Amino acid sequence: MRGRATFITTVAAALILFLLVSLLLLLARDWTENRARQHSEQAVERIVYNLVTQGRDPLLSRGKGDTVIQVVDWEGHVVASGPRLQGRPALAGPEETRDKLLLDQRYCPAFLDECAWVFGLRARNSPWGEGVMVLAATPLPGAVTMWTLLASIVLVTMALLILITWWTWHTIGRVFVPVDQIRSQLADFSTHGLGHRVPVPESGGAIRSLAETVNATLDQLEDARVRERRFVFDASHDLRNPIAGLQMQLEFALDEPPDADWKPMVGAALRDTRRLNDIVMDLLELSRLDSRAPAAVETVDLAGLARREVERRAPGVRFETRLEPGVTVRANPVRLARVLNNLLNNAERHAESRVEVTVARDGADAVVEVLDDGSGIPEELRERVFERFSRLPESRARDPQGTGLGLSIAREVAEIYGGSLRIADSPRGARFVLRLPLAAWSTTP
Hints:
- Helices cover 51% and strands 17% of the residues.
- Helix 1 packs antiparallel against helix 3 (143-187), helix 7 (302-311) packs across helix 8 (333-350) and helix 8 packs antiparallel against helix 10.
- It is α+β, with helices and mostly antiparallel strands and 445 residues long.
- The protein contains 10 helices and 12 strands.
- It catalyses: ATP + protein L-histidine = ADP + protein N-phospho-L-histidine.
């Protein structure tokens, strides 16, 4: 919009300035012609006045400025002339002066360097005979002068066009500065969160109304988000105790003598209770993450953390590690342990025989990679696995009891500490890449 408005304004200004330049050139031409005509006419009137009223011989050399004077007879022959036209032919030929009492027009005789405005008046009696015509010629501006004038006007016009273009671009840009600020703030809400508000410009008008409307909408969204988060937190928190009590009673029941026929049913109920407890715990953790609840931050050695999490794995899938020492980050160790545990659980679930865990530095980042040798994840579904409660068919088949929240929690934790979690390309299986700022470059979230 800014460029379009500037372009339209510049084109309109160019058309107007073109018309003004054309008008100025016409006015300049008319002014110079009128000025030359006036000088020629005054010179002839002075000579004729001296002849008729004073009865004395006029001085043909007394022309005003560049005006030259010449006298021709009835046949167009030169009978007298000023010093600058000595030996020159007539300014106007006999076909222009014969049978005329007055001559007033533009001529371009070959012996003059430029065109001139010639004014002539016939006198009945004169020292040069009867019926002579007194001619006076005043040079008109030549092509060089007119081209210089045109070039000057064009330069001034271009300067005005540049000034108009800059002023339009600058002014419209200043008008849209608040809009750009609102847009940039809205685009950054993933960082600032719903608690952030767009700046309201001091000037009134539609842009101020827009900013106020956006802030009012954000207030409503934040209220709805707070109510939703409070509900999830309260519900999850209130469900923990009865679920824990139910799980304990079912475990005690399973400790009874093994000949009871109801024990398989109680075992199935215990498994469902544990799955329900996992869902509640995940929802409670997501509620804390969404609210950006503060958690103690300390320097965590990723190699040591990854080694401990791998050693806790049950026998079965083979884990291979490549752990670079001294790779530290600033984060909450419990949350980071949960991230690694979720990634290892996911890899162990889908691996055929082997899981590879790597910890290394990459510039200012610490990189943790978890690679399995399973069937992998199609590229078009790689972002879907990070959605809450999203589970691919293979994942449902391999782990029917999963909650579908583990990878969502892992990505949320990574982003809280200024990092990222994504699925990268690999020859075989799924390759999860966790990036976090190294402790030397990280800041407390």
